[in-house]
Write a structure and sequence with these properties.
heterodimer; A: Non-ribosomal Peptide Synthetase Peptidyl Carrier Protein, Chain A; 6 helices; B: mainly alpha; Non-ribosomal Peptide Synthetase Peptidyl Carrier Protein, Chain A
């Protein structure tokens, strides 16, 4: 459920930017059109690809992804930083803490 | 004439927009405000001229510019604790209008405003500074 929320938020955010944004990210990741769950499994690479494609705007895209995922998961957002990978890890940790 | 709640929404949108621009750095933020000002859009008009701002930022930065407006909506939703759900609308401007309508209908109050009111009430009541304020 957690990975699926991140995947959905990320793909929704990229799609909302424009038709080609998601395709460009997937293409740069080198996985053709097979999006599946591959984005969450390769978040460190997604981080780098977003920085490469969107430069300064990549942080905004990462923050939108995290805020949308938090809304789906009903969790408070972590401190918004520059790394999607670490924000997702912090969110995962927050979810575990909230469960226990 | 605006209702007080609508004024608060406009202020919150401006605040969220400013926070998102802050992500890009002070220099870029200043450049964007100057660019908008040259096109006749003041800081306080981001909400009422949302689609114009989107158009201008897309003109200036392409898809990156759109991310600023989506980021503003995402922060706005966080302030009012409502879901962003961009797929509910065909454009960001329409989604902004839907969110505004929902906020007004449900009489929601943004987080930053609640904190301000709590702080003022605490300080008025106790006569001392609230520990959580700056």
């Amino acid at each position: 459920m957690f990975d699926s929320a991140i995947q959905t938020s990320l793909t929704n955010t990229l799609r909302s930017l424009g038709e080609d944004s998601l395709a460009s990210v997937v293409s740069l990741l080198g996985r053709g059109n097979d999006v599946g769950n591959s984005l969450v499994a390769r978040l460190a690479e997604v981080d780098a690809v977003l920085d490469e494609l969107f430069a300064k705007f990549s942080n905004i895209i990462k923050h939108i992804t995290i805020l949308e995922a938090c809304s789906h998961l009903k969790l408070d957002p972590p401190k918004l930083g520059n790394s999607l990978f670490w924000m997702v890890e912090e969110l995962r940790s927050n979810m575990w803490k909230a469960r226990t | 004439m605006r209702t007080p709640n609508l004024t608060l929404i406009h202020e919150t949108v401006s605040l969220c927009f400013d926070q998102v621009l802050g992500t890009l750095g002070d220099r870029t933020k200043r450049i964007i405000y100057e660019f908008l000002s040259r096109r006749g859009i003041g800081k306080e008009e981001v909400s009422s001229r949302f689609e114009d701002v989107e158009g201008l930022l897309v003109e200036l930065y392409g898809q990156g510019g759109r991310s600023v407006m989506i980021g503003t909506l995402a922060k706005l939703c966080e302030e009012y604790s409502i879901p962003l759900n961009l797929s509910y609308s065909d454009s960001l401007g329409n989604r902004m209008a839907q969110l505004t309508e929902n906020i007004l209908m449900q009489k929601l109050v943004p987080r930053h405003f609640r904190k301000d009111v709590d702080t003022r009430m605490f300080e008025d009541k106790t006569g001392s500074l609230a520990g959580w304020s700056d």
